[in-house]
Design a protein that fits this description.
This protein is α/β, with parallel strands linked by helices. 36% of the residues lie in helices and 15% in strands. It has a four-stranded parallel sheet.
Length: 116
């Protein structure tokens, strides 16, 4: 939990929420911006908002590029709601961002993309 990062993004189920909150608290204490999404965040928004700077409700793909731009400009929203009927494979440009992924389970997003 001591990675040198600018942004921490966590997706969580209710089963893993306590661990997600611990990770989020650790990074927020260091002044690092934390985003939480996933099923748990979509179901229990008010609780998750206590542990994250921004919460994504529903699928994040439709708002992800917008969030990054708003974060870079210093005005991200506290909550981003899913945009319905948005194709998750839509091209998005991230020319100033360096992404590092640490996720043990990509099956959810893979399932969504392959179902289209």
């Amino acid at each position: 939990m001591d990675l040198e990062v600018d942004l921490v993004v966590i997706t969580t189920f209710t089963l893993t929420a306590k661990r997600a909150y611990t990770i989020a608290d650790n990074y927020r204490k260091k002044g690092i911006y934390v985003v939480i999404g996933g099923y748990h965040a979509s179901l229990i928004l008010e609780e998750v908002q206590k542990y994250a700077d921004t919460v994504f409700v529903g699928s994040a793909e439709g708002n992800w590029a917008r969030f990054l731009i708003e974060l870079e400009n210093g005005n991200p929203q506290k909550v981003y709601e899913e945009i319905k009927n948005n194709h998750p494979k839509k091209e998005m440009e991230y020319d100033t961002w360096d992404f590092r992924y640490h996720n043990d389970d990509h099956s959810i997003i893979s399932c969504i993309i392959n179902a289209i």
